[in-house]
Amino acid sequence: TSLEEIDMSLEATKAEVEALLERHSGDIANGYAQMKNLVEEIDEYSFKVSEETANAVNQLRLCKDEFQNLRIVEARLAERKEALQSLVMLNSLFDGFDQRLSGGAEELCKLSHDVRSCFATCSAIAQ
Q: What is the C-alpha to C-alpha distance for residues 111 and 66, in angstroms, rounded to an integer?
């Protein structure tokens, strides 16, 4: 084989490739356009997913904060419940003291009346 034959073979192959490219250039252009559109759609979808993921993360953070706030409120309610129970207990103690004091006041009145009577009797005897 000579250089001329190789050159002719290369020219023929080149012509075949050009003919194939010419026949399929529309398909290649369409394929490229479709790939370009797919890349754009993937980019848009990726952006939306990223945005939605960021929103979801923010919502989770807000939920976490709200949960912590609820825990604080729960602890405060427990403290108030304990304080209220203590107040109820103190109230019942005061009721008992009040009854005792009322009974004691009646006895003091009787005793005072008896002392006055005794004093009056002693005064009468002394005169």
A: 65
The amino acid that residue 76 corresponds to is: R
pLDDT for 97: 77
Instruction: For residue 32, give every residue at least 6 positions away whose Cβ sits within 8 Å of its Cβ, in sequence order, or none.
Output: none
- Count how many residues are written for the chain: 127
Q: State which H helix or E strand residue 67 sits in.
A: helix 3-126
pTM as predicted: 0.45
* pLDDT (0 to 100) of residue 122: 85
Residue 30 CA to its chain's centroid (Å)? 51
Alpha-carbon 24 to chain mean position = 59
- Below-70 pLDDT ranges, the chain: 1
